[in-house]
Design brief:
The protein is of the alpha/beta class. The protein folds into two domains: 269 residues, Spore Coat Polysaccharide Biosynthesis Protein SpsA, Chain A (Alpha-Beta Complex); 78 residues, no CATH class. Helices cover 29% and strands 24% of the residues. It contains eleven helices and 16 strands. Strand 15 and strand 16 form a beta hairpin.
């Protein structure tokens, strides 16, 4: 990639969200992407590092919220301070992405832009960059909005799906896994998810998008003019922070899929060839921890007797012992301890209303 081509490419990393699924390690001010669940780096740091050589560091924008802004700045000290932006308030993904589009427009109105979640685990950087390069080429060649699809490994009912049609014949991308998108499908019930998997033409919607600024602005203008007006106002603003502060809270709370992707005139999908995990709960984390002969997954010193298939994660130096227990999640932070059955991994956020405010 030439330096001139690289300089016109931007990445918006969405780094907001709540800290409920990984309590007690996570808190409202410390959500999943700011945790060190897989070693000595946070998921946010890993997301930024994954872009090394693909997008110039000065073109990486981080969108977070006021509650998490200080922690994000403390982690990403090598990014320009002005590249870390806190939303005035939470408005869902369509306004958040429109804000990112406006920020890019104010720098380069003909740029190519990718949108990435901050909290996914992807280890194969080379394959990731190859797929995103193909997505950028598809966006720049065809003027399309491009999504990245994950090949399903099981009929998951908690992901959105993308139904693909024929392979795209864009010049230079004939051999790449680029497909026309037939339609987006909301999170299905288990039976419908089974059907999607059996068809072979459905992929998981990873929430990764690539487009040129002219293409996304054109689609905003056609399908969600209030967002197009916001982008235009940002482009023409002499005081960008003031414009964002005044106008952002007025935008409708809409997801980008509902506001735009389901309606856009031309959407393509590039199939991911890299490993991918959205790390949805503690059982997902357990898969990456060391494992003993009884199936206990742990990141700390552990003794056990007649105990198996437990997940143990500790942020302290205390030794943990298990006696006669199975299928538990045990998570220890400096100020709290969680003990739950593995079957309740998805329900941990229901605890939040029962906890003292200082622990949320």
């Amino acid at each position: 990639m030439s330096s001139s081509a690289s300089s016109s490419r931007y990445a918006l990393i969405l780094a907001g969200g709540s800290g409920q699924r990984f309590w007690p390690v996570s808190r409202d001010s410390l959500p999943k992407q700011l945790l060190k669940l897989f070693g000595d780096k946070t998921l946010l740091e890993m997301t930024v590092e994954r872009l090394d050589g693909l997008v110039p560091k000065e073109n990486i924008l981080i969108l977070t919220n006021h509650q998490q802004e200080a922690a994000v700045r403390a982690i990403l000290t090598d990014l320009p301070p002005e590249n870390i932006i806190a939303e005035p308030e939470k408005r869902d993904t369509a306004p958040a992405i429109a804000l990112g589009v406006g920020l890019v427009v104010s720098r380069n109105p003909t740029a190519t832009m990718m949108v990435l979640p901050a909290d996914h685990l992807i280890k194969d950087q080379a394959a990731f960059q190859q797929v995103l390069t193909q997505a950028m080429q598809a966006a720049e060649t065809g003027g399309s909005l491009v999504t990245v699809g994950i090949k399903p490994t099981w009929p998951c009912p908690s992901y959105g799906y993308v139904e693909r049609g024929r392979r795209s014949a864009l010049p230079g991308l004939e051999q790449a896994g680029v497909y026309e998108v037939v339609r987006f499908r909301e999170k299905p019930n288990p039976e419908l998810a089974e059907f999607f998997l059996s068809q072979g033409s459905f992929v998981w919607n990873a929430g990764m998008f690539v487009w040129t600024i002219p293409a996304i602005f054109s689609e905003f203008s056609r399908h969600c003019p209030v967002l197009a007006d916001f982008v235009s106002e940002m482009r023409n603003s002499r005081d960008l922070p003031a414009t964002i502060s005044k106008q952002f809270a007025k935008l409708p709370k809409l997801s980008i899929d509902y506001a735009l992707m389901e309606k856009a005139s031309r959407v393509l999908n590039v199939e991911a060839t890299f490993d991918w995990d959205d790390v949805g709960n503690w059982t997902s984390v357990g898969a990456y921890l060391q494992k003993d002969g009884n199936g206990n997954q742990h990141n700390c010193a552990l003794s056990q007797y007649e105990s198996g298939h437990n997940i143990v994660f500790s942020q302290t130096q205390q030794h943990i012992a298990l006696l006669g227990v199975t299928d538990l999640i045990v998570v220890q932070s400096p100020d709290a301890l969680l003990i739950a059955t593995r079957s309740h991994a998805e329900s941990i956020k229901k605890l939040m209303d029962q906890l003292p405010k200082e622990l949320t």
